[in-house]
Amino acid sequence: MKPAAFDYYAPSTFDEALALLDSQRDKAVILAGGQSLVPLMNFRLARPATVIDINRLSELSYIRIEGGVMRIGALTRHADLEESDLVSGALPLLREAVKFVGHAQIRNRGTVGGSVSHADPAAELPTVFVALGARFHVASSTQRRAIAADEFFVDAFMTALRPGELLVEIEIPLLPSGSGTSFVEFARRHGDFAIGGACAALSLGNDDSCTRARLVLLAAGPRPTRVQTAESALTGSRLNDDVLDVSAKLAAEAAQPTGDIHGSRAYRLHLLRVMARRALETARDRARAA
Predict the structure, then answer these.
(1) Among 15, 169, 196, 255, which is disulfide-ready with 271 (CB 3.0 to 4.6 Å)?
(2) 63 and 72 in contact (C-beta within 8 Å)?
(3) Hey, is 137 helix, strand or coil?
(4) What CA–CA distance (Å, rounded) separates 19 from 14?
(5) By C-alpha distance, which of 172, 168, 131, 184 is closest to 153?
(6) pTM of this prediction?
(7) Tell me: the pLDDT tens digits for 6-60?
(8) Domain 62-173 maps to which CATH number in 3.30.465.10, 3.30.230.10, 3.30.750.80, 2.170.150.40?
(9) Which residues pair with 176 in a beta bridge?
(10) Which residues lie closer than 8 Å to 112 by C-beta, 6 or more apart?
């Protein structure tokens, strides 16, 4: 199938893009990489009246570190994260997770901001950004604001973006020394949507006890599922195998997956428990090595 008729704009400046968004409001969608939007339009699951192509806004494509945070422009391609020495040195979790995003062709075109704004509960980058405590900077023709990752993802394919707003930048605080991270997922084939997965970020003190913990599941509910009960169990503890087992059990209890042709709810709960345990163990071992 082909998409329904629509008006197409390709602004050449950031201010022009915001003005177009303001004038179109609920009628417009943003085209960045198009790896999610174009298939939806081709199947006519999405029928926008207006498409605003922001690919000319090169100022929204960058990766840099300033003042203890990494800043990633919304138009940065997945492949840029995968190939960046800055990312692999400062936040290797991003590089580890982005390799699970589709296939090379998709990563070459897909954008970080597009993945975030699409808010697929089985997507890798939203899960990682919640685990890293990211903030999303958005802009409209009248204001700018920052939204914490915990508040940005509202429901499946729904975010806190308001009509007329454009995601501009993702801000990620760098982890302290003695930190370890891990991302794991399971899919039927590489490049398929994940059936379940987990992301862990742990920081250890001098006495080998956990000073900071984040555990987030993907494909476990309508949005990235942060397991705060497990984080509380981990923080202040020495991360022996018993503590990790309890935390993985708490992760499964927090999950709300639905069954489908790829696996029943019971199967997915078991899978998420296994994924959480693997992510925690790898993150712990990497933190100790650090």
Answers:
(1) 196
(2) yes
(3) strand
(4) 9
(5) 131
(6) 0.96
(7) 999 999 999 999 999 999 878 899 999 999 999 999 999 999 999 999 999 999 9
(8) 3.30.465.10
(9) none
(10) 72, 73, 74, 75, 76, 77, 78, 81, 125, 170
